[in-house]
Amino acid sequence: MLEMLPETITEDVLYFLIIGIIIRLIIWILFAYTLYTTLRLVKKTNQCILPNQAWFIAVPFFNIYWNFEVVRRLTDSLNNEFYDRKIEVEEQPTRKWGMLFAWTFLLSNIPLPVFILTTIAILHLVYFITYWVKVNQYKTLLKLHVRKFGKGYIAQNEQYEN
């Protein structure tokens, strides 16, 4: 099999490449799980994206497009949910960091000079982590609200008490 690869790619480089791809896929799956669990806390009437659709973000190449959809729809879902629960949060929660994350991911997949790609990759890493932390903070806020006001606020139960 190694005969088909260019001469500059050694066996060691190939193993590091495979390990890197596996690690990246694991990170995307963990990120998708965070999005999934956050969306499960949103009532069905407030969801602009189904929780199971969050898993598409872990699909390579398709996620270049799907990042934009998830950011937009998750922001709208959270906005609807916080308005419905009468929780004061910033307008369009997670949208700013999510769009920065999605755009830098898109740019990192365009063949550009190495110094530009390096800069974009660093920015993407910062925005990706920041977006993930923001989504996790809002997930925690939703969980705390459920603990404080009871199980009636869980997304699976459409009828809740005021």
Q: Your description of this structure?
A:
The protein is 64% helix and 0% strand. It contains 4 helices and no strands. The chain is elongated and about 65 Å long.
Strand elements, count:
0
Assembly level: single chain
- Describe the biggest sheet? none
Mean pLDDT across all amino acids? 88
Separation of termini? 64 Å
Task: Output the structural class.
Answer: mainly alpha
Provide a count of the helices: 4
Helix content: 55-70%
What series of H and E elements makes up the topology? HHHH
What is the molecular shape?
Answer: elongated
Give the radius of gyration. 19 Å
Spans of at least 5 consecutive residues whose pLDDT stays below 50 are 156-162
Short key terms for the protein model shown above:
mainly alpha
Question: Could you give a quick summary of the protein structure above?
Answer:
By secondary structure, this protein is mainly α. It is 64% helix and 0% strand.
